[in-house]
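Session log. Operator J.P. requested a structure for one protein chain; no other inputs attached. Running the standard single-chain path with token output.
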Amino acid sequence: MSDDQPADYGHDLLFGSFIGPQAGSADEVVALTEISEQAGLDLATFQDHPYQPAFLDTWTLLSYVAARTERIRLSANVLNLPLRPTAVLGRAAASLDILSHGRFELGIGAGAYWDPIAAMGGTRRTPGEAVDSLEQGIGVLRQMWAVGERGGVYGTGHQAAIHGAKRGPAPAHDIAIWVGALKPRMLDLIGRVADGWLPSLPYLSSPDALREGNERIDAAARSVGRDPAQIRRLTNITPAEADPETLAGLTRDYGISAFIMMSDDRDEIVHFGSVVAPAVRKLVAADRSGTSTPTRAAATDVRPPDPTAAPTRRFSDTPVWDEAERPSAPPSLDGNGDGYTPLGRQIGEHLVAVHDYLRTELDNLRGIASQVLAGVMEAGAARSALNEMTLRQNDWTLNAYCARYCTTVTQHHTIEDQSVLPHLRRSEPALTPVLDRLTKEHLDIHHLISNVDQAMVDFITEPVVGGPRLQRTVDRLTDALLSHLSYEEHELLPAITRHGLAPGQI
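Structure written below.
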């Protein structure tokens, strides 16, 4: 890094997911994208290996998830240019950006696995030819999107042999071109013609590789009159690297402003978006302003997160439990909170975030059930409403949605029963009555979930008889789950803030 160029380039921070496009679990891939959006992430990305038969086609997937989401940006990570005709790619990218209202970015690469690329009909290239082809291709893409300029689009080379193609359509926003690269010639290319550098942190030899890469990109940018700060620095990371202090340090010391976590685990994605990303933003804002931040405060300044208030509205006249019989956690072992830790608070915030996700999904479930039940009388109106919610227009979809939601609740409770509660039982034995009660409530909730499943079957086979029972079972599940989540937060958040847990366990 030169003396006149700061390590932090000052870009706004982005946080994203890196989802494996497994064809065998296509619904889960879509669900992970939706969860990424719900968790507050800025970006969802997908591998692109068109020669891999176990993967969905990435371009088709991007188009589909664009229609299933509203806010999150989408990108390949990274697109395989040798198997994507450049002019067609430019038109497709602009079209997807228009249809998604400016939410598409173009992560792209020169290609690496030449045997399968050649097997799919692509041209086998040397490393030097691959770099040249990528640079030529980026030039064609820029021309395709420059609708206001005169004349057609021209390009030379194997990848960009374009002879007067018409420009357009213009994308909804200036699509960023982020290049996945590690080698010197590719870094030079990024400095000259690209908008971002996207390496994978685990593949770098050392943190110094980031500094060396930045210096190479910056020098190449200056050689063609570009400001190096125009080029965003991104990186793919593993869940183990998704620590707020670590990521803030990568921004401060190496200018990384976008972090994309490689994981297909729902809880890890929720934790990254709801806990890690806000913490990193606070740390980086403090670094940039030269002030301190509560995230770096001493342990004695840490307090547990605020629990969610108990629900005041009841949907069912038949209570599941006598809530007055619930035991309470003993008073804090130390009145001053000396045992609380910043990491423990982050884990407590993660627990609340997962609970908030379950609450949101419960609201969705109730809304969908209400629409379908209304459709028993007015099927056309109900189906139209369901279509607006991006769900299929039939009762099977509601059944599948209920099953997916109930599976999420069950997985969360299983993880708690197998990992969270035993850890707290060992760390704080005085919590045993509360933990025993929570375990019992988990079993009761699973019984209520079974009732919802059976009521759904009854509704599909006999709508007139099954409809009222479905409503009753959904109402009882609502009351029980909302009450249980609030009780769990009130009783466990202080202990979790003291004793902590591995974030992936919640």
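Operator note: Confidence is low (pLDDT under 50) at residues 293-300, 376-397, 502-506.
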